[in-house]
């Protein structure tokens, strides 16, 4: 997958290819102006179909900004389609911040969300956080951690992969970083707040549902039985813990 | 079982009704039966006495017969005493002296030529005494024991009292059962209503074929239907307004930010105009967010879930995020309240902003716990709020405390505080701070989320 490069990508946005999927022409144009000022190289798509077509022709960009309300296929569908082939960071921009929409977008595969109208520095901060290298917050990333000896689940931070036996599991960048944070010190409980701050770079007022939905998504990929998680365990009232077995 | 509830009252009514009815029946049965039994017994005593009197009269008619001999011919049943008044003497079958003399009333009656029966008590035993007039001014009396009659009547009374008690208890049980049947639909109604109140708008009462109940069920369900569609309409409207207003605002905000980034390329006059646009845009944004939050709160649309929030940490974070000094906070202990984090943060921020805008700045932010309530007090340094204005400040666009201008708020901040706090089961009020400024106090129930 091309996107592996993203795990070791440069931190600065200069030249980073960003795809904006937004049906409102003016919002799209203004976003383009603002993000170009930040150094991103922008591709625009007015609807999901054009966006997917552009992905097919030009290959996936390094980041995507997707509006939820689109003509034709909606933002949720667009994200799901992209997620079939790509693990790039996706930020949702939505005029609706209802519980239902946010959770649905995250479950479809978005990494984070920003509510309209937003400050440009807010969206660039989100983009920066999502493009950070895996394990960047931990100085001594362990090269390889056996998460579950029984099923042969191995996390390899340097290679940027999670494998079960010979099979490589397709985690998104954010899921991968979430797993790395949890694997930093197996057995220790990390609060949702701590995870939100380390993975998403969000403060006290960040939305903890982002963590919950990502943990759910992560479990469906790495747990043998996601309803009875053995590796990423919920500690009620406290947060999450990674158990190595 | 308490009698305070409807069920208790119905049960009590049934029991009292049952008791009255069975008591009435028992008394009637008792009176009639006793009258009948006594009458029967008296008539038979009278007939026997009359027959014996005839016999004695026939004996006395034999020449030379004495009254003693005549009396001795009578063979009385066991325990029956015979008494004959003859020629001014009292004779009895058991000896010269009669066991007792008949009562005066009976003697007068017999002397007047009529026979009669009276109950008497001799040596603590009940008797019936029957008196029959005889020729020549004589009178004949028979004392018949009435113990059996009394015993029968007593047994009858006992049986009737027990039946009355059983009927009362039975009526109470019947009342309990009947009220249970009658109240079952009411219980279903209250269960459904509380389920709806807790947000489950799809709850309905099950259809009922009962002639008396189905109108209530239908109108209740119709009411919930219209409530649900009304709420859905409001939610849709809020959602639409949100989208329709936020989209152009996004373009505006983003474009103005691009212009600000390139402000040095603009002429001086354009820069000044840009800063005006930018300021008003912030104001507009704040107002839109407040309005939408208010509309959402009123439509019962809460963003975020209720979680256990530690207020001291929350207030400390509000201070740090809004760039205020941390030592404003006076919170001696941690206290956990159930709440929606972002909504409460916004309410607290609004209170602090209000103190800054209209009250000359926050002088203290205090957290207190009294019993099961946590109180957050925000004191300011301003002129205070006159008592007659204190309720009005929580109304929308109540801009009494400051002119519209660059520092003006949206006029919705305190309304939103009131709405948010109320949704958390608390309240907010405005009073005096010790330094003469205003003090806004928010109280919230303490505890873990349910």
From TrEMBL, chain B:
Residues annotated as domain HAMP: 180-232
EC numbers for this chain: 2.7.13.3
Keyword Transferase: yes
GO CC, alphabetical: plasma membrane
Keywords: Kinase, Membrane, Phosphoprotein, Transferase, Transmembrane, Transmembrane helix, Two-component regulatory system
Record organism: Actinokineospora fastidiosa
Gene Ontology MF annotations: phosphorelay sensor kinase activity
Subcellular location: Cell membrane
Reactions catalysed: ATP + protein L-histidine = ADP + protein N-phospho-L-histidine
All copies of domain Histidine kinase, residue ranges: 240-448
Name of the molecule in the record: histidine kinase
Top enzyme category: transferase
InterPro entries: HAMP_dom, HATPase_C_sf, HATPase_dom, His_kinase_dom, HisK_dim/P_dom, HisK_dim/P_sf, Sig_transdc_His_kin-like_C, TCS_sensor_his_kinase
